[in-house]
UniProtKB/TrEMBL annotation:
UniProt keyword terms in alphabetical order: 2Fe-2S, Iron, Iron-sulfur, Metal-binding
Organism: Diacronema lutheri
Annotated SUPFAM superfamilies: 2Fe-2S ferredoxin-like
Highest taxon above the source species: Eukaryota
InterPro entries: 2Fe-2S_ferredoxin-like_sf, Adrenodoxin-like, Beta-grasp_dom_sf
Protein name (database record): Uncharacterized protein
Gene Ontology annotations for the cellular component aspect, listed alphabetically: mitochondrion
Iron recorded as keyword: yes
Amino acid sequence: MLRAGALALRRGSLASHAALARSASTVADVTVNCTFIKPNGKRTTVPGRVGWSLLKTAQHHDVGLEGWEASPSWSEDYGDGPATAADHVVVAKEWFDKLAPMYPEEEKMLGYVEHVTETSRLAAVIKLSKELDGITVYIPPENMSFKGYNA
């Protein structure tokens, strides 16, 4: 009787483990490939994670973007909005419509950027999702972190 109970417990444990394994994400499930085109034309593709910002991904891989992470509520970190446009990127047109809408604060900050395009965004507010796997962005030469940087 004790042996039958131990076997049932082990089977239950295996069933729980199998259910957990089916629900667990794999690395591929949470990886989003991002390509950064630097001012010198060099393309760098790096893996990001679902939920990270494009800025965090760039900084994690030392791509060369400056800036600070945006919080879910602009006012928590920035008061009236972001304090810099150093993380300005130009999103490839085929990816632009897949992004979340622009906050008014982001639009205002981009007003200070010299060469804004219709697909300009701040990397800090682009949150990665699987839908953005393969996103390509151009880092403009006036981006402060790229002055004199051609690696």
